[in-house]
Amino acid sequence: MRNIRTHLFLIMILTVIFCIGVTGMIINISISSHFKSYMEESQKKREDRIVASFESIYSKDKKWTTVSGIELQHEAHMSNFCISLLDDKKNMIWGMDPKLITETLGFDNMVVSNHKGDYVSKNLPIRYNGSVVGYVNIGQYSDLLLTQDDVDFSKKINGSIVIAITISIVIGLAVSLVVGKQFSLPVRRIAEVSKKIANGDLDARASYETKITEIRELKETINDLADKLNYQDDLRRRLISDVSHEIRTPLNVLQNIIEAMIDGIYPINNETLELINSEVIRFGKLLNNMKSLTYIDERTDNVDNKPVDLDILIKNILEYYKGEIDSKNLMLQYENNLSDDDVVLGDEDMLKQVYINLISNAIKYNKTEGKLKVTLLETRGIIRSTIEDTGIGIKKSDVPFIFERFYRGDRSREVTEGTGVGLTISKKIVDLHKGSIKIESEDGKFTRVVIEFNKIIKV
Ligand code: ADP
Where is the HAMP domain (predicted)? Predict the structure, then answer.
């Protein structure tokens, strides 16, 4: 396993070496080939010049002597090639010994282009008035002869390439160290924070500032995750305290009543047995709520798709709660502008559960002689229902969490019992029906729940 820094470092160095190597090779090959053609050209010019010299000598004397053009030997000595003069029958008139080049002449100053050392020579015709009057034989120990300057030039180019490679590697090294640090440091810091969170420190947060989008997103995601875990943890604590609270109260009541009965303080009659029964019913309710929450939670999106008449559904629920509405002296108002054919598609039992939860909350959390307003209105294909009460309201700080399971607002705890799952179930059901639900409330004044569904026209 390698860390980001080492990994980047290796990639960078290998890339630099590769790029410079390839560039160096291309430069070297192209310089060599240009250099070779330049040398070949100058050799050709030299040969033409030597042939022209012999032609001019012949044009003066009209014959060859053993000293014709002998002075050209000097240049040949200096430049490490051999010249021989041959007549038109290729008989030698005079000639240099190739061995002299290697033994006595300045061969050390010259470098052959391919160090094979084979002696190569060629006969170049010397012409006078269009006919060949002799040959000059030019020979040397290589196809090309390079002077020390030529070799030095080529060496310098290679040297420069090596220097360029070295400088590039050093720069690449420095850059990779800096860049590697930019990547590895924030990732390491974030990893440290994640470890802390994993070890239970849910307040740990990553704070490293970086301009790299992905790393910033990673940081935000980790912090978000920690927030959620923190919140879930909080919820779990609340759940335990809520459930134990909910169970403790009816249990205490039951225990007191039963003890009083045993001690003979409390009579065993219908009235007292009913009291016990109502506490047992509360237990049952709590368990039922938890059960339906689990059930709804497991549902994905396969709900019934039957037409549901919300008007009838709501009217029935209001009728069912008539007793409670009356006993609290609530002023009930129901508005409805749906035509008989306006329905929503869904699961009637589930939708009933939603309106039971909301209407019962609006009664439960209402003040005596408060208002309970239910509306069912259709606008542009949307069926919008509102359940509004003038009760205890919900604190602003509680509103964002009100649909979370087991969440109970501070106010409601003071006023009445509950399990904090009714709204969670309602939201889940509305979501399953592709509708929307939201709560508007003002602490101590009112609460309004707004639900919207797409309308279907019954055929
Ligand atoms: P429960 O009523 O059993 O506590 P719910 O899920 O129905 O559970 O509601 C969750 C919380 O939302 C309640 O505890 C209460 O704080 C708040 N709430 C819901 N409806 C109302 C309302 N009509 N008026 C005031 N508070 C409400």
Answer: 181-234
Ligand 1 contacts (CB < 6 A) are 357, 361-362, 365, 389, 391-394, 402, 407-409, 412, 418-424, 447
Domains and CATH numbers, the chain: 4-165 (3.30.450), 213-296 (1.10.287.130), 301-457 (3.30.565.10)
User: 10 Å Cβ neighbour count for 215?
Assistant: 19
Residue 378 near residue 337, CB atoms below 8 Å? yes
Q: Which of 365, 387, 417, 451 to mutate to test the pocket of ligand 1 (most atoms within 8 A of CB)?
A: 365
- C-beta atoms surrounding 36 within 10 Å: 14
- Name residues whose C-beta falls within 8 Å of residue 294's C-beta, 6 or more positions apart in sequence: none
Report the predicted TM-score, pTM, of the whole model to 2 decimal places: 0.49
pLDDT in tens, 353-401: 999 999 999 999 999 999 999 999 998 889 999 999 999 999 998 898 8
- Cα–Cα–Cα angle for 71, 75, 76, nearest 5°? 100
